[in-house]
Backbone:
């Protein structure tokens, strides 16, 4: 098969700069939407699924398996675990047993400014042992009894505030009490990054609770069965043992319908983009019916002409895809999105970028075929007479 | 000649793959059956009895102060997963304590977890049944599926009871277990969730 020269397609692209710009911009928009949907799904799944540590077991209130915030257990559970289960991980004789309270409270920027929903976690120093990915990146840890807190890097976004509103040294108000931000922490993109952490006893007082939400235990030689057995031997404590990863996997599956909606929405928008692209390419090709017929009279087969047209459109859409990927990596990556459990950042990683580039490529190939076929099926004699 | 050599090579590779596959399959089978035997062997002889021990009382009555030796009638229930995966232990509940499926219109896939009841009330009507070894610790073998045990199974357990100080959290060290006919249901893969009146 005699193919049209590669330069022929490229020169054709430059024949109408405005048309080329429209095609590239259209493809960019479609690819950008694919990136948003992909980044949303990857970010949401990543923030929940990776939040749990592999060797951690949560002891929570029976019946609160779906939400640790509803769980209420006795503070003594931490001590009971230490006294009953051997083989808990230790560092310098400090056991990895972290009693915690998880609550949603209204936080005010200034007294009477209106409460904003925030996720708070009361913790003891042992929390840093069971959550090794939590890393203080600015300031210092809050001191107990001083109304101090450290905030995750996405806590402000979760509350609908600017990052500046919760920087080190700023004050927010909880139940009318002022609370100073002493530190900022990261947690490897997990949902913890949208939380505010305070010393356990301070938060118990603020939440007017005498029960905690969970005890998180890091296992060494002990097994999950040991803690499950303890939870069932002490039925009076109304406990359930859950692997931390299972808990967050459950939360992740709860948000699967939202992820499906994101995919469907992106799919529908991409379809609209494809239809728009088809229309634009059809308009672009239909004005060249005579030219395409002339090429056939010169001995080029229809297949060769289709290949050249696909080459043209693919070059344009791939350029659009590349621009969208660059914009996505620069503007969208890490962009905070709020959801009921907190906030997460859009994750434009290599897989999402690959999906974006593939979408651009498919748009070019699939988008060019129908109009090309429509133009080439006209008999050569008729096509040559077309004005 | 070359073709014959190629064929020979293909046949040899296929034979090795086939043999490895057979060995792996056989290995898996033998380990499964070993596992089943291990479970049967680990549980004491005579633990499961065909006739229910005489003098059975409801669990709620057995939880009241009294003697250490008890024969209780109960249902395997009280938690979403009433069995401990790697231990000979299971949670049982009083037969009169209503499971979620007794509520009209409820389609809860795990009615044995009492998700329709307030969590605080469940402990008063439940106990842990465990089979202990000579060291006094639960045997490291699961009770689930042993002799047909499953959530909602109705059992009669003869053993020694250790009551909690406030009447909650009793433990029964079982000597004999009779699994009653019927009542047992398959554990669905679906998550728990009451369709009506769920307390938690």
Residues:
């Amino acid at each position: 098969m005699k193919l049209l020269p590669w330069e022929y397609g490229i020169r054709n692209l430059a024949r109408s700069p405005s048309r080329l710009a429209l095609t590239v911009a259209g493809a960019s928009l479609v690819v950008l939407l694919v990136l948003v949907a992909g980044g949303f799904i990857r970010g949401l799944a990543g923030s929940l699924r990776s939040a749990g540590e592999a060797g951690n077991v949560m002891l929570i209130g029976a019946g609160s398996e779906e939400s640790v915030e509803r769980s209420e257990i006795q503070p003594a559970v931490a001590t009971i675990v230490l006294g009953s289960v051997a083989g808990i991980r230790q560092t310098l004789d400090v056991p990895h047993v972290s009693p915690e309270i998880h609550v949603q409270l209204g936080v005010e920027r200034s007294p009477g400014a209106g409460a904003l929903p925030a996720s708070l976690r009361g913790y003891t120093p042992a929390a840093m042992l069971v959550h090794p990915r939590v890393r203080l990146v600015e300031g210092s840890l809050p001191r107990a009894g001083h109304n101090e807190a450290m905030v995750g890097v996405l806590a402000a976004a979760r509350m609908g505030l600017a990052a500046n509103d919760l920087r080190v040294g700023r004050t927010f108000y909880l139940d009318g009490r002022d609370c100073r931000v002493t530190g900022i922490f990261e947690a490897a993109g997990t949902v913890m990054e949208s939380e505010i952490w305070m010393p356990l006893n301070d938060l118990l007082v603020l939440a007017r609770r005498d029960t905690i939400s969970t005890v998180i235990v890091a296992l060494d030689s002990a097994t999950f069965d040991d803690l499950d057995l303890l939870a069932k031997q002490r039925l009076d404590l109304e406990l359930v043992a859950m692997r931390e990863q299972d808990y967050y996997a459950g939360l992740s599956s709860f948000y699967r319908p939202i992820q499906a909606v994101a995919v469907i929405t992106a799919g529908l928008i991409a379809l609209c983009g494809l239809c728009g692209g088809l229309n634009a390419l059809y308009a672009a090709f239909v004005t060249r019916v005579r030219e395409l017929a002339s090429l056939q009279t010169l001995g080029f087969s229809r297949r060769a002409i289709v290949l050249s047209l696909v080459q043209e459109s693919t070059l344009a859409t791939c350029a659009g895809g590349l621009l969208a990927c660059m914009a996505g990596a620069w503007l969208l990556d890490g962009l905070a999105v709020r959801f009921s459990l907190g906030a997460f950042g859009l994750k434009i990683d290599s897989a999402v970028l690959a999906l974006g580039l593939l979408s651009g490529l498919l748009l070019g190939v699939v988008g060019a075929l129908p109009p090309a076929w429509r133009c080439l099926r006209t008999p050569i004699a008729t096509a040559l007479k077309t004005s | 000649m070359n073709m014959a050599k190629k064929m020979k090579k293909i046949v040899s590779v296929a034979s090795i793959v086939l043999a490895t596959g057979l060995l792996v399959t056989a290995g898996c089978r033998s380990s499964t059956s070993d596992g089943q035997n291990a479970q049967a062997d680990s549980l004491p002889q005579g633990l499961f009895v065909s006739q229910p021990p005489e003098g059975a009382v409801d669990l709620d009555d057995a939880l009241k102060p009294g003697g250490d030796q008890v024969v209780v009638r109960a249902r395997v229930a009280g938690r979403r997963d009433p069995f401990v995966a790697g231990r000979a232990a299971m949670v049982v509940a009083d037969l009169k304590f209503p499971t979620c499926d007794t509520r009209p219109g409820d389609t809860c896939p795990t009615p044995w977890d009492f998700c329709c009841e307030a969590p605080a009330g469940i402990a008063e009507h439940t106990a842990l049944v465990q089979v202990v070894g000579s060291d006094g610790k639960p045997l490291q073998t699961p009770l689930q599926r042993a002799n047909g045990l499953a959530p909602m199974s109705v059992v009669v357990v003869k053993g020694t009871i250790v009551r909690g100080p406030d009447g909650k959290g009793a433990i029964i060290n079982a000597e004999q277990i009779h699994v009653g006919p019927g009542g047992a249901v398959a554990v669905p893969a679906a998550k728990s969730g009451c369709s009506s009146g769920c307390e938690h």
Notes: The interface with chain B takes residues 61-65, 70, 223-225, 228-229, 232-238, 240, 250 of chain A (CB under 8 Å).
